[in-house]
């Protein structure tokens, strides 16, 4: 009888992020795992105790000593394997994860000077007060400390490649057809510029939080201690956590900030997806060569000659998965029936996979880009085989001369169309055509000196629009 993998120890991973790709996404475990959620809940709970006592929110209670503050803050700092197991055991009894956090903290206050104040833990709070702040801290940490630095890394890689290849001419393709030449560096720079803009946008995104009770009215607060300005206590606490205060909510924080952030992250992912497919195409055209050592040991199980662009294909697929999950998160989280339903609870537990697949894609893109060599000769040969792309240059000069009053410049577009559309033109053929136009000497010399490789306009200098931020 076949083994039942579900019974094996250590547990077999169900998803590739926790199995095959664990190493690439491991940094997210500190931010977006279930253990990270509970650690953040502990942080919120103990900081709430400290905040209430330090701000005299409840009259008649003493303030904390420095040692007591240190004791409280050590509880989340010491939350490791033993603490995770203990919390899980408590949760099996309470069948409520946030209540288990409350009891976990109270156990650590037993026998200390804070034991008489233990009932302050979770006072005036509904579970969502703790959860919304915890998720905001988790997502903020994951984006700012892990995901955004990874995105900035690939931006820096692209900016460096763009500058290195700023002068390398390349045949463009619009609609898949030969078009006005560009430079490889300028095209790579477009992606660096697009992603840099998204990175700045994401870095400026807000992370909102609230702590205002069961239905957002401060009812328990006001009835217990009517003399305290609970809105001010709430605002200063949320801002103390490094978050933006949301003053008007139902039982839940509305999650609109999450939808906004996830839309931005998904958009950045779609630009990265565009990069992956374009680089894949350039590889297939021979513009890039892949170094085998950077891509992997075996290209094909049956065709020994192949070096497959697996890094870019992996990135493409993972960005599609990430984008789909981020879209679902954004669509689901902005809706909650009346003052509260629980759909957001299970939905938010999938933030980790959504960001994880994106982080995995970025890692593969960076490895793929690091393993590329530019084939300048292949690009030069492609340019030399497509002299018809100079048709734009010639007809544009003719149009300019025509509107300036020069004779013999009639129907420039149509004349170039007859020469170039649907057929290849050699350099000799293009020069013969130019010589037969009767152009003024200056314009004639300028066009005769032109080749597909030199018809790149401002391409190289446009990279000055990449900022210093793109280098880091």
From TrEMBL:
The gene is purB. One of its GO terms (molecular function) is lyase activity. Keywords: Lyase, Purine biosynthesis. Its EC number is 4.3.2.2. Residues 336-456 form the Adenylosuccinate lyase PurB C-terminal domain. The keyword Signal does not apply. Catalyzes two reactions in de novo purine nucleotide biosynthesis. Catalyzes the breakdown of 5-aminoimidazole- (N-succinylocarboxamide) ribotide (SAICAR or 2-[5-amino-1-(5-phospho-beta-D-ribosyl)imidazole-4-carboxamido]succinate) to 5-aminoimidazole-4-carboxamide ribotide (AICAR or 5-amino-1-(5-phospho-beta-D-ribosyl)imidazole-4-carboxamide) and fumarate, and of adenylosuccinate (ADS or N(6)-(1,2-dicarboxyethyl)-AMP) to adenosine monophosphate (AMP) and fumarate. InterPro entries: Fumarase/histidase_N, Fumarate_lyase_CS, Fumarate_lyase_fam, Fumarate_lyase_N, L-Aspartase-like, PurB_bact, PurB_C. Pfam families: ASL_C, Lyase_1. It comes from Brachybacterium hainanense. Signal peptide: none annotated. This is Adenylosuccinate lyase. Residues 19-315 form the Fumarate lyase N-terminal domain. The keyword DNA-binding does not apply. It is an enzyme of class 4 (lyase). Pathway: Purine metabolism; IMP biosynthesis via de novo pathway; 5-amino-1-(5-phospho-D-ribosyl)imidazole-4-carboxamide from 5-amino-1-(5-phospho-D-ribosyl)imidazole-4-carboxylate: step 2/2; Purine metabolism; AMP biosynthesis via de novo pathway; AMP from IMP: step 2/2.
